[in-house]
């Protein structure tokens, strides 16, 4: 492995939301990594920094080309420059889609448990969350198509937001699933917004399926959110792209972004994305190997020490979804809160991800192996004590 992911970087003094915790607490919750960005990216950002002037920026040709070439070479998907828009992030894009493509009181469908910020995006914009709980058989998740069809056929339902790959489950939706969702959405005139921000963080040798590649018909009423921020740990630079094949939808989203004045490009957003896609491939491949090793470590420890905790099989993201329903929490708080209170280990509470998340934990393993060991030691200690 060419790159070093074992070094522990001190993030104190950087206004890190993740590390805004009490002394001796170990945050393994929010979805950012404790690894510095690829040195190739840092070098390009340093060049930009050394100029010293940070005025208004525009989108150069290489920004479009970097995205297009990456998706074509890595994911066998070709889209065109005219189909792309810049956005400061996936969540601003989703909020814009909700405001511009639905009306107050409309339903927006979520396949729960799912990324908790989706709920706030919908509700804060005056729309109604319609949960379609995934069916969990004790080992894996699947979509309840009968329920989904009923929900999409409701005249008040105008949008479904996909997490692809799925957060928190780490599921890579297969081609048949995405084609089926697209077909049901088209039949009911429902727009599909696909959040594909985690798409490049897959297990070694495994690729995700872009929503647009699952079926040629999926392009019609879809908005695709893509970004280098998760894979290359650039979230604080606020850079992403939107791919919208339909010109009418694209015009409405473009106008919506502009009306909020969130379509401007900051001085580092372009350079970060371009350098990530053009020069960060080797670093990302090493990272995926390292994350997979961390995942295997967690699985080994849970199976040997904590059989009452079940690690849900996953193929994507650095977020592990753990079934903790066999462990009794303290009477006054949830399992995640009990673990944090007793050991300082800060995991995400599954309940915040909606229906089906109660009693689950989400663990972020995008950190040096020694930190994962620390987290596991704390987890083993507290769960054994809870027995």
Overview of this protein structure:
- This protein has 387 residues and is an alpha/beta fold.
- It folds into 2 domains: 119 residues, Aspartate Aminotransferase, domain 1 (Alpha-Beta Complex), CATH 3.90.1150.10; 238 residues, Type I PLP-dependent aspartate aminotransferase-like (Major domain) (Aspartate Aminotransferase, domain 2, 3-Layer(aba) Sandwich), CATH 3.40.640.
- 40% of the residues lie in helices and 14% in strands.
- The strands form 4 sheets. The protein has a 7-stranded mixed β-sheet with strand order 2-10-9-8-7-3-4, sandwiched between helices. A 4-stranded antiparallel β-sheet has the order 11-12-15-14, covered by helices on one side. It has a two-stranded parallel sheet with strand order 1-13.
- β11 and β12 form a beta hairpin.
- The longest helix is centred in the C-terminal third of the chain and has 25 residues.
- The mean pLDDT is 97.
User: Would you identify the CATH H-level superfamily of the largest domain?
Assistant: Type I PLP-dependent aspartate aminotransferase-like (Major domain)
Number of strands: 15
In total, how many domains does the architecture comprise?
Answer: 2
- Our Rg estimate from Cα atoms comes to 21 Å
> Share of helix among residues?
25-40%
How much is the average pLDDT? Answer: 97
């Amino acid at each position: 492995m060419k790159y070093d992911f074992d070094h522990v970087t001190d993030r104190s003094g950087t206004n890190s939301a993740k590390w805004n915790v009490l002394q001796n607490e170990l945050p393994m919750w929010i979805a950012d990594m404790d690894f510095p960005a690829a040195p190739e990216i840092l070098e390009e950002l340093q060049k930009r920094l050394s100029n010293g002037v940070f005025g208004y920026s525009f989108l150069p040709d290489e920004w479009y080309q970097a995205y297009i070439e990456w998706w074509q070479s890595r994911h066998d998907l070709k889209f065109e420059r005219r189909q792309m828009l810049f956005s400061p992030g996936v969540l601003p894009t989703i909020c814009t889609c909700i405001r511009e493509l639905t009306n107050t009181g409309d339903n927006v469908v979520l396949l729960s448990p799912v990324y908790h910020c989706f709920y706030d995006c919908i509700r804060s914009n005056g729309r109604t969350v319609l949960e379609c709980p995934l069916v969990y058989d004790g080992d894996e998740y699947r979509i309840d198509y009968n329920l989904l069809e009923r929900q999409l056929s409701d005249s008040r339902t105008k949008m479904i937001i996909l997490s692809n790959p799925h957060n928190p489950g780490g599921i890579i939706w297969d081609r048949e699933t995405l084609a089926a969702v697209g077909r049901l959405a088209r039949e009911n005139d429902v727009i599909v917004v696909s959040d594909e921000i985690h798409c490049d963080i897959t297990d070694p040798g495994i690729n995700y399926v872009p929503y647009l590649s699952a079926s040629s018909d999926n392009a019609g009423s879809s908005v695709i959110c893509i970004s280098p921020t998760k894979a290359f740990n650039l979230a604080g630079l606020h850079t992403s792209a939107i791919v919208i094949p339909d010109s009418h939808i694209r015009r409405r989203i473009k106008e919506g972004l502009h009306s909020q004045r969130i379509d401007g490009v900051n001085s580092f957003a372009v350079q970060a994305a371009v350098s990530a896609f053009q020069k960060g491939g080797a670093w990302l491949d090493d990272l995926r190997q390292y994350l997979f090793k961390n995942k295997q470590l967690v699985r080994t420890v849970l199976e040997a020490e904590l059989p009452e905790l079940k690690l849900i099989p996953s193929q994507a993201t650095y977020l592990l979804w753990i079934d903790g329903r066999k462990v009794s929490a303290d009477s006054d708080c949830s399992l995640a809160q009990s673990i944090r209170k007793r050991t300082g280990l800060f995991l995400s509470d599954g309940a915040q991800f909606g229906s089906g998340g109660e009693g689950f934990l989400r663990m972020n393993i995008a950190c040096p192996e020694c930190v994962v060991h620390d987290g596991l030691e704390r987890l083993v200690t507290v769960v054994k004590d809870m027995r």
